[in-house]
């Protein structure tokens, strides 16, 4: 039988850690019930060296975890604890994450590749804030009292926790996406079966350990690392899961929704991909617009659902802006996550690396001009340097990596048309110092999030989600609470007498 922990060395920090590698069910790390020797092998994307292996959960393991979550919902969580108690535990979990911030960031960097300082200060710092934000909501989930007939009747609503939630998170922000899913679900009183990405499960397992340490009752949060085609599919189709939340590709999102429909019509929220546009108008502060455009496509090495991968620049400033953009992009260091100079790390896996290079080569063969990058690095690691294409057209395939496609427009109407010419609608950005233009264009852009004179920054108290094929439902803000509650209307008769028969 496979061991349920592994010792890993963080050389840059001169630290040795023991990481849990089993399945987390009922606050304990356990082997798989029926396939204890099935393992997921993890690789450091910066060096291509093996990190360790974790237990691969099976369909039976998902069943056991769902049963644990259901029992907890009915006995020790759900409507059996007050919002104040839920708040206290969420804040305790945030305290523990804060205590372990450096260690979590080191493992995130090792497993995902992103720079340690960015994992620590942004991903984990933001996740701690997310937990605290929803801790503040836990005792403030209220319904309405509705006038029906003041003399004889009233109605009121209750926002009940929806139940057992299957949560499927991606590899690009392993801790952030965990917090976005877990915090509102726990604040509302739901229980959870979490399926982290098979590429990056380590921090989800470490956070599971903190769930137990914080004092959450057994079964409230369960973690089953597994292949998406096994664990993700089983959660989506499970007859005793009340809601499934998924972040990932539109292709997989369709499968999740189909499985939910074919099983028990469970509630579904989907945060899916995008081909997000940024527009730079001639009145913009070009220096700042170039900085934000670089952040939009190069942050997290372009592995971002809202990555501003399509940039359209007004023709009057196009040449000047492209030159500025290229010089800015050259300044970013893509390197090992433990190197202080690195502002970006490798892509997460060989599969992603090969896919991005296929798209870069495809862009070149389709006639796009390479203004920066487009050359493979020698040596180990899944590194892709910032790449900028110009002379693009709408039919070119350039995607999910530090790869930017730059086009031009003449008029505001043309810019809006180019931006909206996509089946996606997750994010969009515009840069202009004309206030009326900012209002007109932000109103016309078809996206769940529009940034004006900035890009890619999110706040825990502001809703996030997509339009069109970029998803259903919202995360963050008070809006996320709607995804984890069901509204019950109670009609109360205190005075009407019914005559019978009719």
Topology, element by element:
Blueprint: E1 5-10, E2 15-20, E3 23-25, E4 28-30, E5 39-43, E6 50-55, H1 59-75, H2 83-99, H3 101-112, H4 116-137, E7 145-149, E8 153-161, E9 164-168, H5 174-188, E10 191-195, H6 202-214, E11 221-223, H7 228-237, E12 243-247, H8 250-262, E13 267-271, E14 277-280, H9 286-298, E15 310-314, H10 318-330, H11 350-365, E16 369-372, E17 387-390, E18 403-409, H12 412-420, E19 427-431, H13 435-444, E20 449-452, E21 471-472, E22 485-493
Parallel strand pairs: 9-10, 9-12, 10-11, 12-13, 14-15, 14-19, 15-18, 17-18, 19-20
Antiparallel strand pairs: 1-2, 3-4, 5-6, 7-8, 8-22, 13-21, 16-17
Helix pairs in contact: 2-4, 2-5, 2-6, 3-4, 4-5, 7-8, 9-10
Spans of 5+ residues with little confidence (pLDDT < 50)?
Answer: none
Proportion of β residues?
15-25%
Tally of distinct domains: 2
Task: Assign the CATH architecture of the largest domain.
Answer: 3-Layer(aba) Sandwich
Query: Number of DSSP strands?
Result: 22
User: Which range best describes the helical content: under 10%, 10-25%, 25-40%, 40-55%, 55-70% or over 70%?
Assistant: 25-40%
Enumerate how many helices there are, as a single number: 13
CATH class of the largest domain: Alpha Beta
Mean pLDDT: 96
Within the largest sheet, what's the order of strands? Answer: 16-17-18-15-14-19-20
Q: Enter the CATH topology name of the largest domain.
A: Aldehyde Dehydrogenase, Chain A, domain 1
Given the C-alpha coordinates, what overall shape results?
globular
Query: Biggest sheet, in brief?
Result: 7 strands, mixed
Terminal residue distance: 70 Å
Family: Belongs to the aldehyde dehydrogenase family.
Domain Aldehyde dehydrogenase: 37-490
Organism: Suillus luteus UH-Slu-Lm8-n1
GO molecular function: aldehyde dehydrogenase [NAD(P)+] activity
